[in-house]
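Propose amino acids for all 182 sites.
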């Protein structure tokens, strides 16, 4: 009888674990969907943001990858995303292509962050001129670069500071919401 009870217990434990895992996954999907539907803040789907021909949407997608990798403090991921971003520019934007390549080749995360700030400054006019659909948030951290401050662009209202990462994840504010020209 003890063997049968142990066998039954042995079979029930994996089923219980699987049930809990499935339940958690379902809750996670529900929460994410409700956040997207009710708050409009989780806008990582690039289909919601589009640009005129002066800016390739893939470039902005890679820009966001660089920003997120900087937030995570992942120098290698920054390098890969910046190299992909550099390939998205044509001969009409050599300064942006060169800055993206410089980010990719930088030997440390602090240099990557400084170059990302410069890149953001140069990219901004293209965003203003070519945003066709969606919203982009211009965000700012006053403490970046020894209190000189630094801007970055985001497709989400959530502050994820690329200049301090996890140390000061929420340091910053939205300074402007960029929308398509009318």
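Proposal:
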């Amino acid at each position: 009888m003890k063997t049968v009870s142990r066998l039954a217990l042995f079979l029930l434990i994996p089923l219980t674990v699987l049930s809990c895992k499935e339940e958690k996954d379902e809750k996670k999907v529900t929460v994410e969907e409700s956040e997207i539907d009710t708050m409009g803040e989780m806008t990582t789907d690039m289909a919601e943001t589009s640009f005129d021909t002066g800016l390739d949407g893939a470039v902005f997608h890679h820009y966001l990858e660089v920003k997120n990798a900087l937030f995570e403090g992942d120098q290698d991921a920054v390098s890969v995303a910046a190299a992909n971003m550099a390939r998205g520019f044509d001969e009409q934007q050599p300064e942006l292509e060169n800055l993206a390549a410089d980010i990719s080749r930088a030997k440390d995360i602090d240099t990557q962050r400084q170059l990302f700030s410069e890149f953001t400054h140069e990219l901004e006019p293209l965003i203003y001129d070519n945003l066709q659909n969606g919203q982009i948030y211009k965000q700012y951290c006053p403490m970046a670069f020894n209190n000189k401050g630094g801007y970055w662009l985001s497709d989400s209202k959530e502050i994820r500071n690329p200049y301090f990462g996890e140390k000061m994840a929420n340091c910053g504010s939205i300074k402007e919401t960029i929308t398509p020209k009318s």
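The first strand starts at residue 50 and ends at 51. Residues 84 and 96 are 12 Å apart (CA to CA).
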